[in-house]
Amino acid sequence: MRLKLILTLLALSMPVIADEVDDLIFDLKYGTSYVREDAAEVLGHYRADPRVVDPLIAALRDEASEVKIAAALALSSVNDSKAVDPLIAVLADKGEELEVRRNASYALGYIGDSRAVDPLITVLTDEYEEIYVRDRAAMALGDIGDPRAVDPLIAVLNDEDCGVSWAVDTLGIVPLFGVGWIVRSSAAEALGYIGDPEAVDPLITVLNDKDDDSDVRDDVARSLGMIRDERAVDPLIAVLNDKDDNSYVRAAAASALGDLGDLRAVDPLIVALMDEYSYVRGGAALGLGDIGDPRAVDPLIAALKDKDKFTRSSAARSLGKIRNQRAVDSLIVTLEEDEDGYVRRVAAEALGYIGDPEAVDPLIAVLRDEDSMIRAAAASALGDINDPRAIEPLTYLALRDEEQYVRWAAAEALENMEAVSG
């Protein structure tokens, strides 16, 4: 009960007396395993208190794995470089439990200290290492962003035998294909986060191989979007246009083209709005919004009537990004008539981004909607439009809403309106 009280106080940003930290450290040392786990978790919230670091480091060698995991996660929150070497030691200990080592990798990635790069590379490139530890090491290297990791990550990405184990049966020694794609996917994702142009050609090579694992190629496409090198535009368009390719990979290519922002992608993305697969249509809608070309407005308006709610919400979101007034009437219809609450909410947000006064009365009307999330989105949108007609309904209706987050949205909207008018 006391631990729950402390968490509550922290969440409310209320002061907690200094003795609480000492009590938690005592619990971490001498409590039951459940108490020690909870104490480690709560100590992670005391980022500014230097007393918590050494006890949490010591807890990395607790007899209970759940305590060690909680301590590693807490150290990632505390983000003290003093924890780096002890976390590296846990990562390197092959006798330690898998989840403990994975969470040590996570903490090292979050702390971001360059001392962790070589140990993480060692784990990543060890073909006898546990797959899920290698996977987490790849992600940690992406979090740190050190260019020393690029070549090892490319090597893992190119290793199609990654994760293959071997067994003996009547035919002799045979491969058992398992979950090695997970490591390669994480390597691809990490290369995207690092953003080194050296990775572009190897990533394109994997993208172009339709026989490769679709999950790996999905992450490859997204990483090419993150790196934003124009060499990726044509290969990504080719994947998007290939209706025989995996639909999830094509959807990822659409999203990546949006990240790249190259106008060559606009026409292929517009065509993809009519694709037979909803993920491709939705990805194309999002990609068009990221590029922001006005040629996409009318096709996106048409997509507001798509049978798939993800595509409709993506179209609404993108119309809000493009901010073309031609979309206002159609977005109002979506706000008022769409059968899905989330789509209506995104339409409200989009109307706020566009800022056309024509949307004020329809948005005021939905301040009485039965869906509280729509009411909150409408309140925020009215604040973005900043029309004086909204002041009274925001004040006397939304500020008195039964849901707190609607009241917060109304208060913020009125504050924004006052700031603009003032």
Quick summary of this structure?
With 422 residues, the protein is mainly α. The chain is 66% helix and 2% strand. The N terminus is likely disordered.
Could you characterize what this model shows?
This protein has 422 residues and is an all-alpha fold. The protein has a domain at 330-422: Leucine-rich Repeat Variant (Alpha Horseshoe), CATH 1.25.10.10. Helices cover 66% and strands 2% of the residues. The protein has 25 helices and two strands. The chain has helices spanning 2-11, 19-30, 33-43, 53-59, 65-78, 84-92, 98-111, 117-124, 131-144, 150-158, 181-194, 200-208, 214-227, 233-241, 247-260, 266-272, 278-291, 297-303, 309-322, 328-337, 341-354, 360-365, 372-385, 391-396, 404-421; strands at residues 165-169, 172-176. A hairpin with a 2-residue loop joins strand 1 (165-169) and strand 2 (172-176). The protein starts with a helix and ends with a helix. The relative contact order is 0.04.
Topology summary:
Elements (H helix, E strand, L loop, with lengths): L1 H10 L7 H12 L2 H11 L9 H7 L5 H14 L5 H9 L5 H14 L5 H8 L6 H14 L5 H9 L6 E5 L2 E5 L4 H14 L5 H9 L5 H14 L5 H9 L5 H14 L5 H7 L5 H14 L5 H7 L5 H14 L5 H10 L3 H14 L5 H6 L6 H14 L5 H6 L7 H18 L1
Antiparallel strand pairs: 1-2
Helix pairs in contact: 2-3, 3-5, 4-5, 5-7, 6-7, 7-9, 8-9, 9-11, 10-11, 11-13, 12-13, 13-15, 14-15, 15-17, 16-17, 17-19, 18-19, 19-21, 20-21, 21-23, 23-25
